[in-house]
Amino acid sequence: MTDTNPNGAVKDEANRPLRILIVGAGIGGLTAALALRQQGHDVHIFESSKLAQETGAAIHLASNANGLLRRMGLDAEKIGGVECVGIVEYIPQTGAVKYRVDTTKMSKMWQHPWHLVHRAHLHTALKDMATGPERKDQAAKLHVASRVLDVDAEGATLTLEDGTKIEGDLLVGADGVHSRARSSIPGGDKKPFDSGKSAFRFLLPTEILTSDPQTAELVTKSALTMWIADDRRLIMYPCVDNTMMNFVAIHPSKESEADITGAGWQETGSKARMLDIYKGFAPSVLAILDKADESRLKVWQLLDMEQMPSFIHEKLAVMGDAAHPFLPHQGQGGGQAIEDGVALAAVLPLGTKPDEVKDRLRIFEQCRYERAHKIQSFTRTAGLDTAELAAKGMKLDMMEYMGYNFGHDAWDYTTNALQKRLEARDKTLRTSRTYLQNLLPAGFAFTSPATVASASISCTTLDGMAWLGGGGYSHLGLYIHGINYTKRDGSKVFGTYLPLLFENSADPIITGRDELGMPKLFADIDVRESENKSSEISLSWRGTTFGTFSISGLTEEEPAVNGVGSEPGQKGPGPPPPPPEHGTFHYRYVPSVGEPGKADADYPVFVPKPEAAEGVEAPKSFATKTASISLQAKDWQTLPTLHHITDWLAAMPLYGVEEAKLVRSTGVSDLSGARRLDADSRTLFLARLDDDAGREIRLRRLLESMRRRSTRERHQGVIMMGAHWDCTGDRIEVATNPSPGKSPVAYVHPSKYVNYKLVSDLDTAERCISMLRDGGFNVGANSKFEWIHDTYLILIRMFPGGCPPTTIVSMNARFDPHFHLRVGSTLRPLRNEGYLIIGTGGAVHNLYRNVWAPMLKYRDNFAQETAPEGWALEFRQSVEDCMTQNRGPALRRAITRLMKHPQYRDAHATDDHFMSACFVAGAAGEWEDEQEERGRLGAETWELTNMCNSQFTLGSWSSEQRVATAAA
């Protein structure tokens, strides 16, 4: 970060730095000042105090924050930081060890170490780096004893206590939990409140503890030590090269409220009261507390605050405790302030223009708002008393919290978000919303009620296309911005609508229509660029020109700045800004042959914005506001196949051109993510499947057919429940291992499965966890789960070319059929988004009733010397009747009745291989599913004489019907 622009921009004299005014010189404000200084900006910090003393306490620098500081050149170990290599917890009342954890192995998961640092030392280091003369770029200016009384978000102006007004290009409110700046955000006048807990804090030299036999054994070098009781706790950890110990004693606020006068962090505490509050703790703990220097003992209320509606308004951004005050239970308050400061700098590389600031703040908020509040929620849960957790039926999953907290790099994440906005050459124009509204099919609408809308005419020329024999073609389309589509479940998708795309080559027109359903038409497209910074495009058909587009006065700009698309910023206290656009819509319509007015295909399509490609040269961008657009209607004699379209285009009101751009880049747009909106996904119930079963010809054909259909339907991903993973109690889990391994398969050579790379869909896993939690389940993430053969062998057979993004959900070991029905029903809405739901279990699966001798004799599971026994055939027929004769709620009732079948316990000695059938029935068992076609038996195999594997498909691939897939 120290010398380069995040998107490869080259600094030159034309890149004027922004004048940035930061209110507050705490950890967050100084981090922002340092990061913005390193971007080359003119930074001013206004601090109300004289900075004569910084709070004498320590701070956690977890991997997510420590990595950002290291990127800026600040190494925690050089300022006395201690790497945390262990965690120890004692039982408070007895002093006995509850557990010890060596975190050195766990630390290898993270790119950067977890350091414990003296707050004052970190503060000084940040201040020196932000304001010192060591670097070549201009130092940030620190104005102490400069209390800010008011901020003007629209004018980026602040007013000091003495009446001085200072104007900049951007205001940053880093003025803490009692922030004045945040009140300038509409709805942001939030007041902090007592969380119900307060904390004593103090520092002790480590030597004082180690020299006392009563306390010496409690000191573990480089470790975090805790004593956690029902409603109070004591935390101890080292800093200053292990020479000092920091203490935080958290307790109910009412027990120390007599000491609270409103001095905040500098409130002096009473040692006698602290000892009384912790009188129930072991004598060794009281001996530690008794060593506190009362003149330096501090006590403060732990403050919380309602969620801000936004972190930004006009040219103001708030950060750190001003935006999202943190309780101390995870040590992430300072870390999130550091993330805020770095993310803000990431969206403002040198060369950002003042009139782009508001748009860039939108990107900043999109990158920070959800993450900061999610960690804030984690922290509140981590601080609940034992009784509060029990009352809410909650359990702490600190590994889940740690994975989310530590595994993030705010710089990389935010710069990537900035790069995703890079747009192709286009001319953005203002036109009539009410006119464009007529183009929108049912379900689509403008997000804003305004009657002026934005649209783009974008032209792209491609060359060197291998599939065209090295040749190329051009396309020009009309893109209408600010559109949303309301899905059947009521949720909305936001994007840009493409009603029309001209191309000058038949081959891409045919493939684009057939494979993607795009609204493509033929036209000759002539693109001429001259050396005098101008470009002209003409549209014609057999010599008749019906459109010309001219651009002049192009000036090259850095793609990291002006090659980035943005959304409109919020203007004043009026309506909120539109949501971010996530991709492009178009509509597929294929008329039926011989049936006018009917369609073989009739549905909306969505193409998500592709991820930023790695290793691709940054595009060069040229922009201007000087452009002209001319469209002529013509008639049916001159344009017999296009005149009805050109007539509409020529009548479109144009209120002006906002911007014209020319972008030269390499590569083509990734359209592989195109999918049908409200495309319903199939639910499959598949039987146990090992590698031998995969050889059975009918089954192999079925799975290959399913793969082809799934590929053609462009499913979002796969959600599976197997038959070999369950959780005890009332809990279920969702697999979140980013690189899962595979359990071995008996009698199958590893070469048949070991090289198949599994793809864990972490984003969908988080969604499933959220949906299940909202549905009342005790659910958590399992980041260590290794996939079992009942799931990955299915994927290998269905998707031999590569594993689709997959999410695996566990069973619950109580094996309650109604519980698993409800799991499937809760996740059912994901079918509307194109997810394929699969359950894998067994139609008949009782290892005790199998006949093993032929398999051992012939080394073949399918070697059957006798027919299946009558009880197995009877139950297998009942499973088929259940799956193929019932739909909707009737399917749910039928599947649970099977567990009362006279032969059920013969067919299933244990219930584990039947729960996935209940899961699938829940996913395909709502009232709406009654309108779908009945389930179908696709293939079946018998092995070990009495084990039956039956494959059922529930639902349909039709765009009007839902589909689910399950394996039994």
Which features characterize this protein?
968 residues, alpha+beta, FAD/NAD(P)-binding domain, D-Amino Acid Oxidase, Chain A, domain 2, Acetoacetate decarboxylase-like, 12-stranded mixed β-sheet, 7-stranded mixed β-sheet, 25% helix, 29% strand, flat, disordered C terminus
Radius of gyration from the alpha-carbon trace, in angstroms: 32 Å
CATH topology of the largest domain: Protocatechuate 4,5-dioxygenase, Chain B
Instruction: Name the CATH class of the largest domain.
Output: Alpha Beta
Give the beta-strand count. Answer: 44
Kindly report how far apart the N and C termini lie: 54 Å
Query: Oligomeric status of the shown chains?
Result: single chain
Helix fraction? 25-40%
Helix count from the secondary structure assignment: 25
Give the overall form.
flat
Low-confidence parts lasting 5 or more residues at pLDDT below 50?
1-13, 422-427, 559-576, 687-699, 957-968
Q: Give the overall pLDDT as a whole number.
A: 83
What is the second-level CATH architecture of the largest domain?
3-Layer(aba) Sandwich
* Major β-sheet annotation: 12 strands, mixed
What's the CATH superfamily of the largest domain, by name?
LigB-like
How many structural units, i.e. domains? Answer: 4
Share of β-strand residues: 25-35%
Structural class: alpha+beta
